[in-house]
Amino acid sequence: QVQLVESGGGSVQAGGSLRLSCVVSGHTYNNYCMGWFRQAPGKEREGVASTNTAGGSPYYAGSVKGRFTISQDNAKNTLSLQMNSLKPEDTAMYFCAAGDFATWYGYTCQIYPPQYNYWGQGTQVTVSS
Fold it and tell me: Rounded distance, CA 124 to CA 68, Å?
């Protein structure tokens, strides 16, 4: 079965950096959407960034564009999120997710939760002022 294992969360001061990683196993094919989402207490889950494992431009939420970078290592089935210039409003539980439909080169994956079928356990990111 598909499993996603996340790591890299922690507590940092504003302006600091963190790198989140997500290892995917058990997926039936290697061309699909992957994304990072986050959820703060009392708020709905929101998309952060996404990428297409078949190749294409990543997609970022406006609130993180220019600060976060999503990347993938298909050989290792690993998704990463480099987070720089962190702000207190970035504090949330961060989730890695994977879709279950075949993509193609150039397709831009979106960051809507219903588009994703498999989810990691979440890793907490706390940014203090």
Answer: 16
Q: What is the mean pLDDT of residues 37-52?
A: 96
Is 117 in contact with 99 (CB distance < 8 Å)? yes
Q: Considering the chain, what is the average pLDDT of its residues? A: 94
Judged against a pLDDT cut of 90, whether residue 34 lies above it is answered with: yes
**CA-angle at 64, arms to 111 and 114, nearest 5°:** 15
By three-state DSSP, how is residue 115 classified?
Answer: helix
Q: How many residues does the chain have?
A: 129
- The single-letter code of the amino acid at 89 is E
> Under 8 Å CB-to-CB from 42, ≥6 apart: which residues?
none
